[in-house]
Amino acid sequence: MNHLHRALVLLSVAAAVSLAPAPAHAGLPLGPVLAGAGLVVRQNDPSVVEGSAIGLLQLNGNYVRHNGLALAASAGIVDFLAIEALATIPGTLSAGYTDLVTEVYEQEALTPEGIDLKQASLTASVAAKVVPVYGTLRAYGASLAYRLFVIAGGGIVGTKEPCRIGREEGCSTEASTATGMGLRTPPTVNDTWRPAANIGVGLRVDFSELVGLRAEVRDVVYSDHYVDPSLPAEFGDTTQTMHLVFLAVGVAFFI
């Protein structure tokens, strides 16, 4: 009986320890512990103001590849929800054509219809950032706070289109080695600025009370209209759904 009593006492103490609140991070409210042994998971994310400097690298460039720099700022609305605005820094979103485009233009039979070779010059969005889980990682005496988040929202994408140098107004004078054409801003506003949906998932790890590292995969989805000037209208006029899937990694500053 004494052994049974001692076992029950030990189990009660262990349960009380595993359900005890985790230490607060950066002065934030405590949440219930759902897992112990080096991983503390809490169900709600406290309101926080965050600013981030981010590098973008496109992961799915079949014809056009992009990379650039962006700035983001978010403000917490409730414990698990924040609103984030993100925009690429003007002039930093660069683009280039992949080797596939060179092959297509060298062998015209590969493309009886036009392919959309417009390049993104800017992307901006306002999105809801939901934090379903956050907590603390503990290893070798160190503790790192982390937050898993989901992004969903809308925005715009600015575009530039290929053009025939010297034959179309506003065309650049520098020709692409892949297409032999220049670039220009599309003549209509609807073709220049396209509404876009933004969806993504990410992780933020805090190194201190003021700075952390964030990484996310974000898909910028929009319907694009493009007219290839080198082809007849019945072949060169295309509308298709574009996916700019970016790996975004940056430094986060928060209060």
Which helices and strands, and how do they pair?
Layout lengths: L1 H17 L20 E4 L6 E10 L5 E15 L2 E8 L5 E4 L1 H8 L12 E21 L2 E22 L18 E3 L4 H4 E14 L4 E17 L5 H4 E18 L1
Antiparallel strand pairs: 1-6, 2-3, 2-11, 3-4, 3-5, 4-6, 6-7, 7-8, 7-9, 9-10, 10-11
Radius of gyration: 25 Å
- For the record, the CATH architecture stands as Beta Barrel
Helix coverage percent of residues? 10-25%
What's the CATH topology name? Answer: Porin
Oligomer: single chain
Number of domains: 1
Mean pLDDT: 78
Structural class: mainly beta
CATH class: Mainly Beta
Shape: elongated
Task: Give the distance, in angstroms, between the N- and C-terminal Cα atoms.
Answer: 54 Å
Give the SSE string.
HEEEEEHEEEHEEHE
Structure characterization notes:
This protein is mainly β and 255 residues long. It has one domain: Porin, CATH 2.40.160.20. Helices cover 13% and strands 53% of the residues. It has an 8-stranded antiparallel β-barrel with strand order 2-3-4-6-7-9-10-11. The radius of gyration is 25 Å and the shape is elongated.
